[in-house]
Specification:
The protein is α/β, with parallel strands linked by helices. It is built from five helices and seven strands; from the N terminus they run ββαββαβαβαβα. Helix 3 links the parallel strand 5 and strand 6.
Length: 195
């Protein structure tokens, strides 16, 4: 799929703020500083639509982007960053869990992990939650260009073992590696929604 248009729609801090139209949605989730915004910008071929930051925990709401005037990308708050106040962190958890559990338009959850690091306990909990509730999901390991081929192979094996998942898309926002695979998964999810 070629993205021909993409625009920021809104930030939602609670369920009443979610867009009301029934367009399908693709959610991007993972821990803070894992590269969610960079992945979104890379997929859309833009530089600054989704806000990137060197400060983890910057995304504090569900950010909705309209793509091709047809479906939404949803950038969810990252989890696991210690410097964010506890009351905000607990609110994020409730907001994200509520969205993942209730949103009928959610056709695919893209769970992002950093290929340079072991998946965290929260990554495992998120993966198990998506599996338990039979939510369609795709596991994407970002920042692959920062590792040698041997390191990457070893680390992807670790991700597969830790999260009990054979299918991991290796991705680089810098080189575009994995971009076509992610778009194929998105297209399949969108096609299933419209059936």
């Amino acid at each position: 799929m070629k993205p021909t248009s993409a625009e920021f729609v809104k930030s939602a801090f609670q369920e009443t703020d979610w867009p009301r139209e029934a367009r399908p949605e693709i959610a991007f989730l993972g821990r803070s500083n894992v590269g969610k915004s960079s992945l979104i910008n890379s997929l859309l071929g833009t530089k600054g639509l989704a806000r990137t930051s060197s400060t983890p925990g910057r995304t504090q709401a569900l950010n909705f982007f309209l793509v091709n005037n047809r479906f939404h990308f949803v950038d969810l708050p990252g989890f696991g960053y210690a410097r964010v106040p506890e009351r905000i962190r607990s609110g994020w958890g409730e907001m994200v869990t509520s969205y993942l559990a209730k949103r009928t338009q959610l056709v695919l959850s893209i769970h992002i992990v950093d290929s340079r690091h072991e998946p965290t306990k929260q990554d495992l909990q998120l993966h198990e939650w998506l599996e338990h509730y039979s939510r369609p999901h795709l596991l994407v390991a970002t920042k692959s260009d920062k590792l040698s081929n041997n390191e990457l192979r070893k680390n992807i094996g670790s991700v597969q073992r830790t999260l009990h998942e054979d299918a991991v898309v290796v991705y680089s926002a810098r080189t575009g590696q994995g971009r076509d695979q992610v778009w194929q998964a998105i297209e399949s999810a969108l096609a299933a929604f419209s059936c």
